[in-house]
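Example 9 (inverse folding). The structure is encoded as follows.
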């Protein structure tokens, strides 16, 4: 199910479903009818309605709880909501994004957070962030077609360059600027202030040469290309973060062949014969790459979970939801970790990939 299918509900219907469900969970069901009467009056006059602070907080947490592709939902109740619905200028958006990163990073003790900007009004006046994540590294293509940096960011890097962004020299880990846009306006670009992004240099507990690879990764993954839907209201800009599972960095960001593709170099440095697939050189290099990530983030005091722990946490989440009379829906292909999959508990379970609102949707 996508956002188009969700929108089959009228706004009053969607509001009713959300208010009745949320107020029941909050233990204030006796206030639901009165609140729905207020919402109906507001919709009749303005064509939309405004969530109270409590509705926004619980709705955002419900959206995380309902996110089928997230393995880390056990802690959905801890999500911190940063309310930026009053932001009207580019400076106010910039300040809110800076505040989010500073608050979420918290010196390495990552706080799961979401910054919610203005909701999409009937006239469509709501901002959207063009970065897929608030922290990404640039990808530069040479004349020969080789990529320096992150290949997944080549198109966005070109967009930024077309807007006038450049570096004196292109490295593998250049932080991309933020770009956002209001309807009917040209995109606005802003550099991330120096020192705001916490990064972790990667070492290895057994290989002294590892540090010479010059690898690093940023501490906080902040998703910024999804819309938050609560009770029929769409928030087109609502960047949110948890903390990394190690394989997201080691297996995917650094290991994938269409990303940093570090497995051949790591295997070579380990002295493995990369011409002989039977020795499982990719697997052995992948384990050490993930070992480096977990070791380095732990040494730096940055929150991170490994894929075995995350799997057990998700099963605990399932059990907790069951006790509450709810079903933990999931997209199996996303929940199962990309390394040692069958060694994790979630691999051996089945899930219905049913979309429940509130939720997050790709634009």
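The amino acid assigned to each position is listed next.
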């Amino acid at each position: 199910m996508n956002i188009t299918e969700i929108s089959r509900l009228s706004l009053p219907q969607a509001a009713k479903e959300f208010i009745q469900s949320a107020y029941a969970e909050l233990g204030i069901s006796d206030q639901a009818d009165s609140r729905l009467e207020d919402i109906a009056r507001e919709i009749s006059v303005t064509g939309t309605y405004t969530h109270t602070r409590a509705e926004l907080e619980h709705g955002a947490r419900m959206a995380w709880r309902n996110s089928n592709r997230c393995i880390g939902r056990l802690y959905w109740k801890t999500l911190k909501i940063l309310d930026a619905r009053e932001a009207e200028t580019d400076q106010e958006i910039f300040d809110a994004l800076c505040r989010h990163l500073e608050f979420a990073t918290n010196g390495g003790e990552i706080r799961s957070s979401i910054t919610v900007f203005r909701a999409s009004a009937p006239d469509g006046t709501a901002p959207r962030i063009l970065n897929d994540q608030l922290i990404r590294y640039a990808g530069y293509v040479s004349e020969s077609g080789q990529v320096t940096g992150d290949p997944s960011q080549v198109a966005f890097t070109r967009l930024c360059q077309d807007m006038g962004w450049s570096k004196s020299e292109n490295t593998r880990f250049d932080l991309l600027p933020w770009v956002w846009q209001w309807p009917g306006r040209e995109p606005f670009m802003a550099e991330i202030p120096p020192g705001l992004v916490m990064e972790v240099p990667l070492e290895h507990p057994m290989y002294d040469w590892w540090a010479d690879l010059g690898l690093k990764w940023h501490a906080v993954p902040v998703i910024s290309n999804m819309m938050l839907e609560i009770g029929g209201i769409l928030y087109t800009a609502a960047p949110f973060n948890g903390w990394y599972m190690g394989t997201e960095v080691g297996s995917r960001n650094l290991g994938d062949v269409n990303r940093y593709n570090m497995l051949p170099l790591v295997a070579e440095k380990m002295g493995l014969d990369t011409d002989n697939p039977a020795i499982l050189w990719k697997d052995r290099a992948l384990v050490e790459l993930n070992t480096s990530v977990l070791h380095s983030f732990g040494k730096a005091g940055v929150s991170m979970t490994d894929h075995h722990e995350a799997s057990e946490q998700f099963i605990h989440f399932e059990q907790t939801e069951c006790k509450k009379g709810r079903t933990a829906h999931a997209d199996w292909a996303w929940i199962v970790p990309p390394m040692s999959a069958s060694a994790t508990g979630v691999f051996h379970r089945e899930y219905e990939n049913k979309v429940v609102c509130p939720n997050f949707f790709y634009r």
